[in-house]
Each structure stands twice: as C-alpha cells, then as structure tokens.
C-alpha cells in the first residue's frame, strides 16, 4: 500500500510562498526535504515545478509528477497529469511505498484530504507571502515525531527556530 505524504515548510503565519518562490532559505529544511523524498515520486503543480532551481529541475532521483490544467504542457523527464486523483491512482498502481505531495497551495489543499502522513516543517517566524498553507484540523492528526532546531535563514540573514513535525492521520 502506498503512503501518501504531504511535505511542506510553513511559517508561523501559514506563509509558504511569495512571487513563486519560498520566502526563506533554511539549508536544514532543504536537506530534510531531500532526505525524506529521495527515491519516491513527488507530486506538484506546474508553478511549483517552474519555481524549482534550474539545476534541480526535474528533482533528481525522484519521479516528478506535474499537475496542470494546460493540456499542451510537457517537461522533459516528468510525468504530467491533469487530474489530482488520477495522479494519486497512478502512484498507488505503481506500488511504491511512498509518494510525496510537495505543493503549491492548491495541490496541498487536495493532498491534505487524502494524506496518510503530514511532514511539517514549522518555522516560528512570520513571512510576507502571497501563498498560504490551508488551515489544518489538527484533531484529525496525531503527532508521532518532533525535532526542534534553530538555523540561519540565508535569504533574510536571520536566525530562526523551526521544528520537523511528523503527523499520522487518525483512523
């Protein structure tokens, strides 16, 4: 059975993006993301895919599954779907152990409805943003792991506290 996992870094004010970019740069969070997702399919929207750095597109070592409404959309080395549920069915039929939902806002909203696991990097700082993570009903989730950290936000040259939180959907 394929575990569907939403993985995201969210600021204290629920910010996740600004001008099709991440408003912060935490090296530890990028390493955490890579370590968790390596070897597994990553489902993302076309804007999220385009926002990846040139040298990380497609994400190496992972099947990049892109959701788009554009029927003519094609990116070398990716799998394209026009329906979220079809993408989920595709990864389940492949029989992979895990598949990750990696953004953006609309894809996260859909992903949170079907996710088994929620990998949240909670950044204890507010950021200016134009994309926000949907409200989460934490009554539906059980915290199963927490790691607290502090690191340098290289984009804003500030120290920030953050936690890697793993939640499992309550049955």
Provide a compact summary of the structure.
The chain is α/β, with parallel strands linked by helices.
- Distance from first to last alpha carbon: 16 Å
The best one-word shape is globular
pLDDT under 50 segments (min length 5)? none
Q: Which architecture does the CATH hierarchy give at level 2?
A: 3-Layer(aba) Sandwich
Over all CA atoms, what is the radius of gyration? Answer: 15 Å
CATH class wording: Alpha Beta
Strand adjacency order, main sheet: 5-4-3-6-1-7-10-9
What's the structural domain tally? 1
Mean pLDDT: 97
Query: Proportion of β residues?
Result: 35-45%
Q: Return the CATH topology.
A: Dihydrofolate Reductase, subunit A
Class inferred from helices and paired strands: alpha/beta
Notable characteristics:
171 residues, alpha/beta, Dihydrofolate Reductase, subunit A, 8-stranded mixed β-sheet, two-stranded antiparallel ribbon, 10 strands
Descriptive overview:
It is a single chain. The chain has 171 residues and is an alpha/beta fold. The protein has a single domain (3-169), classed as Dihydrofolate Reductase, subunit A (3-Layer(aba) Sandwich). Helix content is 22%, strand content 36%. It has 4 helices and 10 strands, in the order ββαβαββαβαββββ. The chain has an 8-stranded mixed beta sheet with strand order 5-4-3-6-1-7-10-9, with helices on both faces. A hairpin with a 4-residue loop joins strand 9 (141-153) and strand 10. The protein is globular and about 40 Å long.
Q: Helix and strand layout, with pairings?
A:
Elements: E1 3-11, E2 15-17, H1 27-37, E3 42-45, H2 46-51, E4 64-67, E5 78-81, H3 84-94, E6 98-101, H4 105-114, E7 117-123, E8 131-132, E9 141-153, E10 158-169
Parallel strand pairs: 1-6, 1-7, 3-4, 3-6, 4-5
Antiparallel strand pairs: 2-8, 7-10, 9-10
